[in-house]
């Protein structure tokens, strides 16, 4: 008995070009803006971990961010053509991510106000990590939920991504003084809230004693 | 973690818990899936754009609905509430008005409407909105001049009676002692409803409505004035039957002593007599 041949489904995979993978930002941006899939592939490899990390650290580790990562890249690829040659890609990608985050935070706030989305709670962190860490993160993001979008972004970009004030202001398309004000406001509120939060205090105490995982 | 000298966690603790536990890395398969999804989206003409267009359409629809709702709300409630001033009387916080002089109290509303309360009359401004007010006359005589404006809606409560007004000039006399209502309409029209006419009776310019002990009568104001100038009529006396044009037999049933209810405000088919303002009344 002769078995019939199985249909083979070919799949085209865009492999990063060795040349483009090592290309500088201007070359990569130029190639990506022309629709070169190899350039897109390199961009994804280079920046998607950064974008995903910013999204998850700002929105919360359990947030479903893959669609937002796609949105960031689609926006970035559309705008690449107008990027000055001297511009660096990383600040550009960060700025696009910040704009997507800002819109998402505002949407989330409206959803919470309309009660279409519940605030963070520990069940959101059911996957990954030990229970103490999940509880601490849950407490922290509940506190961050109380901040407005601009203050929250300033806080997460500074403390979680380590951006300097000037970089933060540039990414948020704000003046230096506005960025400082937002950050100061967020710092004060978060500091006060975590000090009052028993779960987070307990976690931090355990961590300082080396008990936390 | 840099949990400091005090027991309170610091912002460094906050940084640490996130930096140590939240990364942007995914496994190789998921990373590759994301890339393929992006490349597919780019090949298919960026469905993200279509999604954005859909979102824009949805947003526009939502905005339209919001604007429509806002316009409706504004039309219903948005206009400024009428304001009023009281002269010659005392106004309590609850809207109770009582004259404090022989000339009575005068209420002037911002739409130009005016209510004159005779000396001794008591009334309450029960409600005021953008289109009118609800005035409850507790006792005594009031002369009203309601500005004839689009959407004007004024109500006067007198005991169990409600007078619905849309721009007219009339006098109301309500005696809480013997439950007698008298309305002299000088201009415009209004609807009076109460126990004798639950669905309301339409009163036209130049008519006087009198209600007493469950009986309701309407007569030409001029005639009523003439009668009043001779011997004062007793309102609790039987209704005059001399002029059949004054009372609709369908409305006024002497055997029952009540006006017959009808689905629409009852209308008495009277030729409007000339306007008359004189109003001799029975003393309170």
Largest sheet of chain B: 16 strands, mixed
- Radius of gyration over C-alpha positions of chain A, nearest whole angstrom: 21 Å
- Our count of domains of chain A comes out at 2
Cα end-to-end separation of chain B: 89 Å
Largest β sheet strand count, sense and barrel closure of chain A: none
- Identify the CATH class of the largest domain in chain B: Mainly Beta
Q: Helix/strand/pairing class of chain A, anyone?
A: mainly alpha
Poorly predicted spans of chain A: 119-127
Total DSSP helices of chain A: 10
Report helical residue fraction of chain B.
Answer: 10-25%
Q: What does the average pLDDT of chain A come to?
A: 82
Low-confidence region ranges of chain B: 231-280
CATH architecture of the largest domain in chain B: Sandwich
The CATH C-level class name of the largest domain in chain A: Mainly Alpha
Shape, principal axes of CA atoms of chain A: elongated
Biggest interface, chains and residue tallies: A-B, 48 and 33 residues
CATH homologous superfamily label of the largest domain in chain A:
RNA polymerase sigma factor, region 2, helix turn helix motif
Oligomer: heterodimer
Q: Could you say what the CATH topology of the largest domain in chain B is called?
A: Jelly Rolls
Total beta strands of chain A: 0
Distance between the termini of chain A: 60 Å
Q: What does this entry look like structurally?
A:
The complex is a heterodimer of chains A (213) and B (284). Chain A has 213 residues and is mainly alpha-helical. Chain A is 66% helix and 0% strand. Chain A is built from ten helices and no strands. Chain A starts with 17 loop residues before the first helix and ends in a 5-residue tail after the last helix. The model of chain A is unreliable at 119-127 (pLDDT under 50). Chain B folds into two domains: 19-78; 84-267, Jelly Rolls, CATH 2.60.120.1440. Chain B is built from four helices and 18 strands. Chain B has helices at residues 11-21, 28-43, 47-78, 221-229; strands spanning 84-87, 89-91, 96-99, 105-109, 114-117, 122-128, 133-145, 154-158, 161-165, 169-175, 180-187, 189-194, 197-204, 207-212, 215-220, 252-253, 258-259, 266-267. In chain B, a hairpin with a 2-residue loop joins strand 8 and strand 9 (161-165). The A-B interface holds A 13-14, 35, 37, 40-41, 44-45, 48-57, 61, 66, 69-71, 73-74, 77-78, 129, 133, 136-137, 140, 159-160, 187, 190-191, 194-195, 200-201, 203-205, 207-209, 212 and B 1-3, 7-11, 13-19, 21-26, 31, 34-39, 41-42, 46, 48-49.
